[in-house]
Amino acid sequence: MLFAGKEIEKLMDVYPCLREVCKGLKTEAYPAAMFASSAFLGTLMTRCTYRFYHRPQELRRLNYSVFIIGDPGSGKSFVTNLYELLAGPIRKVSKEGQNAENRYRRKYKEWLDNGQKGDGPKKPQVIIRTHPARTSNKVFIEDMKHAVEMVDGQEMHLHMLSFDTELDNAINQQGEAWSNKTYLELKAFHNEEDGQFFSNYDSELCDFNVFWNFVYTGTPRALKNKVNANNVGNGFSTRLAAIPMPSTHFEMLKREELEDANVEPEEHKTLRMWAERLDSTHGELPIGKLVESTYEWAKEHMEEAEEDQSKTDELLLKRVPYYGIAVSVPFIMMRHWDEWQQHHTLTLDDTDLYLCRLAMNIQFACQRHFFGKYWDYYFMQQANCISYPTRKRHTKLMRSRYSVLPDEFSVPSMQIFLGVSQRTAEKMIERWLNDGYIKRIEPGRYQKLYLELT
Questions:
Q1: Who has greater pLDDT, 380 or 174?
Q2: What is the C-alpha to C-alpha distance for residues 40 and 335, in angstroms, rounded to an integer?
């Protein structure tokens, strides 16, 4: 990420907000800042559309599924600051809707407590676009259906926005049917249609398209819980932008001095200003030149994948162009703001195309880094080059323990990784040898034969 960070640094004098969103971070963390901020800025541009080279007759939306991944204490908290500053206009409207909903709930409870005399309070039609991880699907879907505006004479659904500092918090909700949003996550990237038809009277019978952007921060282990060899085939990893944070390398943060606690920093004012501006944008974006650049990028990399006979690269690069557009467009819009306001045009140049290609290169490299081995494993299984683990039921604890071990390990390293006693580690090794999950490569050292246990 160091090279990409240095390239982003070169563009800071060209694109508004790029320097501000990266302030205080290491150069290697600039890609994470660019992707996270673009998700918030792009969600503000929810009323904008564009046409892609695949099925150009369809109007596309700016969609984001972004995970910022780093070890504990690696500095991921900067995303919280970006969320508070850049998502301000969306959060303000949502807060008004939440207050109205809470007033209704209080009045409804009073009406129930008073014996339901007379007509009960009428439920308000409010717009709430921000949701925490602990949100029931019923509430989420209702809010998504109600988040509608008339834009350029047509009814348009606005994006929902979710942010959480703990990816595990979002993952844990998937264990509950009432809050499991796995399929909504999958359908959000292309705004695909979903629906619900339940027998209870509280749930509305409806079809709907999913308009939902989300940004989560988490650890590598949390990411592995979300995407692993067992579930990589559902395709979520190809829709996901997982951007790593750099190691701290025993370096202290730069010490900052507070000049005046009552004065907002200039960079905060800049970010708030652009958030308000982008929240007002609407209409079809004239970015045909940018789309053509993404096509050429994909074509070049597809030829390389064919030369390497890499089915993994062939698969992973297909959705990368969407991120090239989604990440670069908010910054391009800010750079050409005056032109857009006056003429509703965007005169793109080579610098804009380079920013787009840089975003694609970052996304493709991160896809390979985090998910390449899973897809290699997937295609090898499809070709019957390797066998599946013995089909027996494994406990969640056993799957987790097997997953967290490195490819090669010993009894002492197993004790460290799993936090178990020597006797427990030896018993597990004996059992896994018998089951064919590992093999002995030399006295005292073992090798895993599978990425994951199913």
A1: 380
A2: 17
- The mean pLDDT of 61-65, rounded to a whole number, is 97
Domains detected in the chain? 2-87+130-248+264-381 (3.40.50), 396-448 (1.10.10.10)
Instruction: Give the per-residue SS3 of the chain.
Output: CHHHHHHHHHCCCCCCCHHHHHCCCCHHHHHHHHHHHHHHHHHHCCCEEECCCCCCCCCECCCCEEEEECCCCCCCCHHHHHHHHHCHHHHHHHHHHHHHHHHHHHHHHHHHHCCCCCCCCCCCCCCCCECCCCCCHHHHHHHHHHCEEEECCEEEECCEEEEECCHHHHHHHHHCCCCCCHHHHHHHCCCCEEEECCCCCCCCCEEEECCEEEEEEECHHHHHHHCCCCCHHHCHHHHCEEEECCCCCCCCCCCCCCCCCCCCCHHHHHHHHHHHHHCCCCEECCCHHHHHHHHHHHHHHHHHHHHHCCHHHHHHHHHHHHHHHHHHHHHHHHHCHHHHHHHCCCCCCHHHHHHHHHHHHHHHHHHHHHHHHHHHHHHHHHCCCCCCCCCCCCCHHHHHHHHHCCCEEEHHHHHHHHCCCHHHHHHHHHHHHHHCCEEEEECCEEEECCCCCC
Q: Which amino acid is at 182?
A: T
Phi-psi region of 436 (alpha: psi -120 to 50; beta: other; left: phi over 0): left
Burial label, 90 (beta-carbon count in 10 A; 0-12, 13-18, 19+): buried
Count of other CB atoms within 10 angstroms of residue 370: 20
What is the pTM for the complete model shown?
Answer: 0.86
Give me 294's structure tokens: 């993404």
Distance CA 25, CA 46 (A): 28
Percent of the chain with pLDDT over 70: 95
What span, in angstroms and rounded, lies between the C-alpha atoms of 431 and 427? 6
Q: Which of 134-148, 246-260, 363-377, 414-428 has the lowest mean pLDDT?
A: 246-260
Residues shown for the chain: 454
What is the number of other CB atoms lying within 10 angstroms of the CB of residue 338? 8
